[in-house]
Structures are given as C-alpha cells and as structure tokens.
From TrEMBL:
EC assignment: 5.3.1.14
Isomerase is among the record's keywords: yes
Protein name: L-rhamnose isomerase
InterPro entries for this protein: L-rhamnose_isomerase (IPR050337), Rhamnose_isomerase (IPR009308), Xyl_isomerase-like_sf (IPR036237)
UniProt family annotation: Belongs to the rhamnose isomerase family.
Function as written in the Swiss-Prot or TrEMBL entry: Catalyzes the interconversion of L-rhamnose and L-rhamnulose.
A Gene Ontology cellular-component term: cytoplasm
Length: 427
C-alpha cells in the first residue's frame, strides 16, 4: 500500500508544477467532483437481462468471453455495482436497460411498467445515485429479422412503439423519484445485411414510429429522450436505418438529445471532433464512451488518445452542463467488476487531465496565431504529474489509490463471484 503521507507530498509538488502554468488544481478537482458518469448495467451480465429466457444476444450485439461470475439476478447485479462504485471516486449514475426489470414471470416488452423497476428506483435512492434508462430493441423474437420500429409490418412496429411509450413512462417515474432527468436513450438495430432496394421507406417508417412514441410531452425535469445512431452492425453491414444523418436531423427537428457512441462510426472517425459541431444545433448530447477495435467491438475504455480528446473537447468547449457522459462496453473475458472500475476510472482520469490544462492560455496562443507555442504546451502537458493529482483525489474521497482497487475485486471474486455457476440462478 502506498504511504498516504507520500501521496500528499507528491500532490503538493504536482500542484506547484501546475500552478506554474497558471492551472488551478483545486478548481479542476472541484469540476470533476460534480460529474456523474452513467455506468451501464449491461457490463455486469453480458447484456443478458432478467427476462428469464436466457435468450441469445442478438441484433448485431456480441459479447465474447466466458469469465466466471456473471450477475444472474438483480440482487447480484446490485451487489457487483456497489463494489464497482466503491472503487470509483465521486457519485455516479446507473444506466439501466428495459430488459433488467424485476419481472417474476413472463412480461413482454410492450407490457412493462414502473412497478417492474421499483426495486431499482428504491435501490438507487438507498445508494444516493440516479438512474438513466434505455428501451431494449434487441434479443427478442419480434426483432429476429433485424427490424423493429422501422419494420414493414405494422403490427410489429406497433409492438415496438408500445415498448417505447412504456419505457418513457418508466423513465419519467425514475426522474421524478430522483429529482433530476432520467436520460432515456433509444437505439434500434434496424438495418439490412445487403444492399436495400429502398433506403427511404424504412427511414420514413422509423421517423413516424419515433414521432408516435414521443407524441406525449413529458416533463423535461423528469426525462429527456436521446437517439443513438450507428454506421453498421453485424447483420446490418450495408445499411442502418438510424444513421448519423438520420438522427442528427431527427434530434435537431424534434429537439431531442443526440447520442454519439464512440464505436458507431468509421474506425478512423472520432466522436471528439463531432461534439462542438453537434452542440451548435442540438440542446444536449449523450455520449456512449466505448472503444472499438477494428469495429464496434465495445472493448473496455482505456486511457486512449480518443478518450483524452473527448474529455478535452468537453472541457475546452465548457460543455459539462450539456453533455451527459455514459459508458458502453461489454467484455466477458475479464472480471466484470474490474471492467467497470477500469473503464470508469479512465473516463474520470481523462476528464481530470482535461481540467488540468491551461485552456485559456492555449486558446489565447491560438487566437494570436502562435501555433508553435500551442503545440509545445500541449506536448509538455502530456508528461505533467496527473497521477499525483489523481491519487490525491482518490485518497481524499476514500477510494483505493493506484491499483489497490484490484485487491478488493480479487477478494470479491474469491468470496462471491467464483461461487456463481454459469447457469441461471434459481433465487
Ligand atoms: C446495449 C446498448 O444499448 C447498446 O450497446 C447500444 O447503445 C449500442 O451501442 C449498440 O451498438
Ligand atoms: Mn451505444
């Protein structure tokens, strides 16, 4: 274990070094303290949900790996999340999918109600965290041919419209209970494996279905609707109905939150560059911070260049009050609690690094046309003692410093996760 006094010594030296660049470390720490990352529930159980059918994951989503200890019930998922939150500095949110309700028997997606999520609402209150929500438009017999809200069959479309309407009511109840808006994110997989004969018709149907879902005005203080685009998926390589252009136009024209997932664009296309463009035209953004490796593979978020660029854009543009930061990855090849801890700690660390930049100085150099100094300072920033500030932050809020969190996860694996069998729990 690192000596706590040494952490403080290193912090004071680092603080002095940042101050010499005109950076106020205390202000940076204050800034990130108030950021709540929306931690996604689906890393904990490989996107299986609790509908009791153990159905195969579908609609282009794929989880690989068979690490033992997947959560099989809401209680197991809550317990795993409690450990994860205790390893991450700050108070964060939980992003819940509709397939994770307490169903106690078959309840189809168009029939779900607030009562199925009361357990989550109560648990969130007990943890002093807030909830976000997502309708689940995948892994269901009525999505088996790859289409939901844009389906050519009116009956199937109506089923999924009813699911969307049910989810909005649940999201609004969550927001009302927690006293802040529950972001309700709509992602649909609809698309074709091969070249469509009509790109137009499914897009018209998707827009009409969404309009039907959103026809009731719900209080913005309770819930905000978000829409998530995608370039392609497994099985929808040639055409995705909800493309970037589709949802950008939809969000602007309907005053919706746009969701940008870091894995949903061309492999060389980063979402960092999109933030300032999109925020000129939509009120708020939801990010699904993810890491694609060659494709939308949803790898655990690492401290990558793109992660740093995303957080820099949020801080440099002063967008923290308009950008909701969510995570979206699912790796079943490693300990799932560790996956949450690694990804969320990295997202926060990158946000801290961005907050420790001499932003005003860099932007002044740019306005002055002094690009040499701008590049020089940006490069020097990369080896500033971020770790000493981060360690102090973790220590000051009582979460493990450095890799010490790993011991807690390993202990939990021994006492709890390893006792779970890979088949469904009967509790
Ligand atoms: C499970 C999520 O809703 C899903 O990952 C979605 O957000 C997505 O990114 C699909 O590729
Ligand atoms: Mn996503």
């Amino acid at each position: 274990m690192t000596n706590p006094a040494n952490i403080e010594k290193a912090f004071l030296l680092a603080k002095e070094q940042y101050a010499s660049l005109g950076v106020d470390v205390d202000a940076a720490l204050e800034k990130i303290r108030s950021v709540a990352i929306s931690v996604h529930c689906w890393q904990g159980d490989d996107v299986a949900g609790f509908e009791g059918d153990e159905g195969a994951l579908g609609n282009g989503l794929a989880v690989t790996g068979n690490y033992p200890g997947r959560a099989r019930t809401a209680d197991e998922l809550k317990s795993d999340l409690e450990l994860a939150y205790s390893l991450i500095p700050g108070k964060h949110r939980l992003n819940l999918h509709a397939m994770y309700g307490d169903f106690n028997g078959p309840v189809d997606r168009d029939q779900i109600e607030v009562e199925h999520f009361q357990g989550w609402i109560d648990w969130a209150a007990s943890q002093e965290i807030s909830l976000d929500f997502n309708p689940s438009y995948f892994s269901h017999p009525k999505a088996a041919d790859g289409f939901t809200l844009a389906h050519a069959d009116e009956g199937i479309r109506q089923f999924w419209i009813d699911h969307g309407i049910a989810c909005r009511k649940i999201a609004a109840a969550m927001g009302k209970a927690q006293g802040n808006p529950c972001i309700n994110n709509f992602w649909v997989p609809d698309g074709y494996k091969d070249t469509p004969a009509s790109r137009k018709a499914p897009r018209e149907r998707l827009a009409a279905s969404l309009d039907a879902i959103f026809s009731e005005n719900l209080p913005a203080a309770h819930t905000l609707d978000a829409v998530e685009c995608k370039l392609f998926g497994i099985g929808s390589e040639s055409y995705v109905v909800g493309s970037h252009e589709f949802y950008m136009g939809y969000a602007i024209s309907r005053n919706k939150v746009l969701c940008l997932d870091a894995g949903h664009f061309h492999p060389t296309e980063g979402i960092s560059d999109k933030i300032s463009s999109v925020l000129m035209y939509v009120p708020e953004l939801l990010l699904h911070v993810s890491r694609g490796v060659r494709w939308d593979s949803d790898h655990v978020v690492t401290y990558s260049d793109e992660l740093q660029a995303i957080m820099q854009e949020i801080v440099r543009g002063d967008y923290l009050n308009r950008v909701h930061i969510g995570l979206d990855f699912f790796d079943a090849s490693i300990n799932r609690v560790a996956a949450w801890a690694i990804g969320t700690r990295n997202a926060l660390k990158a946000l801290l690094a961005a907050s420790l930049e001499p932003t005003e100085k860099l932007q002044q150099l740019e306005r002055d046309g002094d690009f040499t100094s701008r590049l020089a300072l940006m490069e020097e920033q990369k080896t500033m003692p971020l770790g000493a500030i981060w360690d102090h932050y973790c220590q000051s809020v009582g979460v493990p410093v450095g890799a010490e969190w790993l011991n807690k996860v390993q202990e939990y694996e021994k006492t709890t996760l390893s006792l779970r069998s890979s088949c469904s729990a009967t509790v």
